[in-house]
Structure prediction request, 328 residues.
Amino acid sequence: MTARTAVRSRIWTVNLLAIVVIVVCIAVSLMVGRSGLTIADIVELLTGRGSARDRLVFEWRAPRALAAPVFGACLGVSGMIFQSLTRNALGSPDVIGLNSGAYTGVIIVLMVGGSGFGEVAVGAVVGSIVAAFAVFVFAYRGGLAGFRLIIVGIAVSAVLSSFNQWFAVRADLDESMRAAIWGAGSLNGMTWAPLVAVTCIALVMACVLGPLSHVMRAFELGEETAASLGVRVERAKLVMVLVGVVFTAIVTAVAGPIAFVSLAAPQIAKRLVRSPSLSVTGSALVGAAVLAVGDLTAQHLLGDVSPPVGAVTVTLGGLYLIRLLLKE
Prediction:
């Protein structure tokens, strides 16, 4: 068996295992807990039958069960894009300030009196985009070097985090609590409307990302190599940044900043496959599996206490980040 054949075999194996984990997590989310469904109930509902009680439970639980893998896939792809662009395992939206920008956008909306879901979502998206634009402008010096992008992103994130903390101290208690709850990152209360909206936007972005897959592989060999292969480097970087920002922003707008999935998923997929390159499909599936497992843990690990999934991913991701820093 050649090295290339072995890598392809591992890719198929890892992707299949990730899909199995995702399906199992979705099923367990529907079945475990009070008023849980049985496998027979789920089959009947999927075939158009089932009792009114089962339909009610399904409508209540299914959006959250499906949102976890969908949102995790978006975050995994976003992390893969920025890590490919920067050629650095730390080059994820969590590190370079996009989550802090979304948080700041929500805070500004609350400060001017906004309170609806749509207003908060718009604030998060605009905040992410403005933060990404600021990082892009400050990091650009005749080109966009990956390491400079990370350092500038950390600096921008620190400035935005300082503003966010100032707001928490000075704001009205109700506003501060709302911002804190949103900032924890949670899938509680997920409904079909935001899930469908995120899924549709993600599918459009996936269509845009498809033609860029070969460009991202070329970037991993270096910008000079990519340019020699006919890639318009700066234009490709701008498009990649925009696509990565959208993937992160749509999830953050709906669920808040769910940290470390973007950072960890591409690297976990890369190490499982033992490939020198990052994979879009692998990053998406591992991201989906990581967030699905994280949300299931958040719902049932502590019994009646259900922490936000962001708290679980921060805990696990923090341990992963420490290991990454010590090793690399």
Summary: The domain at 3-327 is CATH 1.10.3470.10 (ABC transporter involved in vitamin B12 uptake, BtuC). The mean pLDDT is 83.
